[in-house]
Structure formats: C-alpha cells, structure tokens
C-alpha cells in the first residue's frame, strides 16, 4: 500500500483543475464467479413485487424451502447453497438479515434465491484480479494478467498522452503489465488514482449507479 501512497502524492502534484469524473461507490458488480451451482428454475419476481411480497408468500408456505444465496461483490460474485429451511424459519432469517434481498421465489418448487450485495472483492477476485490498460487505452479489470486479454470490465478511456507526460516510465510499465489487486482498498486506490487521467468525454458516461 506504500506504493499507492506515493501515487497519491504524485497525482496531487499533477492533478488538473477538474472535478472527479465519477464516484467509486457506484461501481457495478463484476463477473468473476467462484462457485458454480446449476441454476434452479426460478420464477422471476415481477416489477411490482418486492421483498415484503416474498415474505408474505413465505408466511403462507408450508414445509421446507431450498435456499441459495447469490453474493454480488464490487468485484466478482458467488453462489452459495443454504440448503432446505423451513418456511417459517426462513421468514425469521430474512427478517434478521436486512442486507439480504429475496430476489426470486418459485412456490411450486419451493425454491428461493437471495441476493446479497457485498462491499468487498470475492475470494476469486482477490487472487486473480489485475487492473491495467487494454489495447484501446481503456482502464480495465482483467481476470489474470492483461496479456491474457481476459477482460472482465472496462472502466473508462485514459488520456494516454497526458498520462505519458505526467507519470514516470516505471509506473506506465506497471500499468501495462497490470497492477495486482488483492483487496478492496487497493481496488479503490487504483481507480481513484487513474480517474485523474480519464478523458474528459468520459464525464458523459461514467455516472454513479446509485
């Protein structure tokens, strides 16, 4: 993390007089998968349904329900089974965990899918994620080193000329090789640092999601 603190000092000296282009809190969940479980034939909840509606349906349900939790991380996602839980106990469990959202409930098959948004990186992401620059000059999240070209997410296009005139060559080489990301602090630090080198026209497309 000392390396990123040096980057912070450097970028403060080089920062142009412009507002940040986007907020890190609005990053969308990415596509890393750590556990693969066959998808059940869930019936999607319609737009007018909500968490309370599912709870009400569970209260009228009798017997056990098969439950899976879909964890959506800032980087990555996981699917974990909770097994068979009695419907009444499941209502208590959901009430005790307000961070869980009942996403899909199939009453005929007694199956419930829960979504849980987590402000962290998934275990897979912590061991495989790199942030680097793709061949088109975009700041990009990769599954593995950038040379493998396994793109997971593109953040924004970099002002390469400005960056090349501002950063030392070793930092540019590091970006080309890929910056290893192992925790949420590093993830946020790298994105915050390079947001100062985003092209100005990204202001139109890089908006917080919430």
Molecular structure report:
With 210 residues, this protein is of the alpha+beta class. The chain is built from seven helices and eight strands; from the N terminus they run ααββαββαβββααβα. The N terminus and C terminus are likely disordered.
Rg to the nearest angstrom?
A: 21 Å
Q: Tally the helices: what do you get?
A: 7
Strand content: 25-35%
Helix content: 25-40%
Shape annotation? elongated
**Class by SSE composition:** alpha+beta
How many strand segments?
8
Task: Put the structure in a nutshell.
It contains seven helices and eight strands; from the N terminus they run H-H-E-E-H-E-E-H-E-E-E-H-H-E-H.
What are the key terms here?
alpha+beta; 4-stranded mixed beta sheet; 4-stranded antiparallel beta sheet; elongated; disordered N terminus; disordered C terminus
Q: What's the topology here?
A:
Layout: H1 2-14, H2 51-59, E1 64-75, E2 77-86, H3 87-96, E3 100-106, E4 111-121, H4 123-128, E5 129-133, E6 138-143, E7 151-157, H5 160-166, H6 169-177, E8 179-180, H7 184-195
Parallel strand pairs: 1-4
Antiparallel strand pairs: 1-2, 3-4, 5-6, 5-8, 6-7
Helix pairs in contact: 1-7
């Amino acid at each position: 993390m000392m390396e990123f603190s040096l980057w912070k000092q450097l970028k403060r000296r080089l920062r142009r007089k412009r507002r940040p282009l986007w907020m890190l809190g609005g990053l969308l969940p990415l596509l890393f998968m750590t556990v693969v479980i066959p998808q059940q034939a869930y019936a999607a909840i319609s737009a007018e349904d909500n968490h309370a509606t599912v709870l009400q349906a569970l209260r009228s349900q009798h017997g056990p329900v098969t439950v899976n939790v879909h964890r959506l991380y800032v980087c990555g996602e996981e699917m974990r089974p909770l097994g068979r839980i009695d419907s009444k106990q499941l209502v208590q469990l959901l009430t005790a965990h307000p961070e869980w959202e009942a996403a899909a409930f199939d009453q005929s098959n007694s199956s419930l899918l829960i979504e849980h948004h987590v402000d962290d990186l998934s275990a897979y992401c912590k061991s495989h994620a790199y942030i680097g620059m793709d061949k088109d000059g975009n700041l990009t999240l990769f599954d593995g080193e950038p040379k493998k070209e396994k793109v997971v997410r593109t953040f924004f296009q970099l002002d390469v000329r400005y960056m090349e005139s501002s950063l030392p060559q070793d930092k540019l080489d590091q970006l080309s090789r890929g910056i290893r990301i192992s925790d949420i602090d590093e993830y946020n630090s790298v994105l915050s640092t390079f947001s100062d080198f985003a092209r100005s026209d990204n202001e139109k497309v890089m908006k917080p999601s919430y």
